[in-house]
Amino acid sequence: MNANDQRLLTACLNALAQLDNPLPPDVQSKFHDLAETMKANPDTIANLDIIVGDYPPLNELYQAEQERLDQNAGVRNKGLPPLPLPNEPTQELTNSAIDIFNASDSVAKDKAKNNPNLLQRIWQGIRGKD
């Protein structure tokens, strides 16, 4: 998965977390198919743009997230030069996407990952992931 695919996948996951309602069954089914494709080949996000484009509320948030990520990519700290982007996708991003896309309600699953309950936050603090 190249850096652009990683950016698109991140934008999609961020957009899903912002939706208020579950995805329509046909769109959810397409995300399930994408998860299966990603399981077989983690380096591909297949037809992500087409799937997102099939549901206008998600597409609007997805486009806004892409713009936000593009703007943030240009912001640089005046300290040390930034570390180079990894050439390989993080397994965490791929696994998270597969997990969210495979859920019966991807929106709820993504929101739960982004807003952990108190017990999950305590556990993350113990493990050192804040």
Give your account of this protein's structure:
This protein has helices spanning 3-18, 25-40, 48-53, 56-74, 91-102, 106-114, 118-127. The chain has 130 residues and is an all-alpha fold. It contains seven helices and no strands. The chain has one domain (3-77, 90-127). The model has no long low-confidence stretch (mean pLDDT 81).
What labels would you give this structure?
single chain, 7 helices, about 130 residues
Write the layout of secondary structure elements.
Elements: H1 3-18, H2 25-40, H3 48-53, H4 56-74, H5 91-102, H6 106-114, H7 118-127
Helix pairs in contact: 1-4, 1-6, 2-5, 5-6
Taken together, the total number of domains comes to: 1
Percent strand equals under 5%
Class inferred from helices and paired strands: mainly alpha
Total of DSSP H or I helical runs spanning 4+ residues: 7
Describe the largest sheet.
none
Query: What is the alpha-carbon Rg in Å?
Result: 16 Å
Tell the overall outline.
globular
Give the helix proportion (percent range): 55-70%
> Can you tell me the residue ranges where pLDDT is under 50 for at least 5 consecutive residues?
none
Q: Distance N terminus to C terminus?
A: 26 Å
Number of strands: 0
Overall average residue pLDDT:
81
Order of helices and strands: HHHHHHH
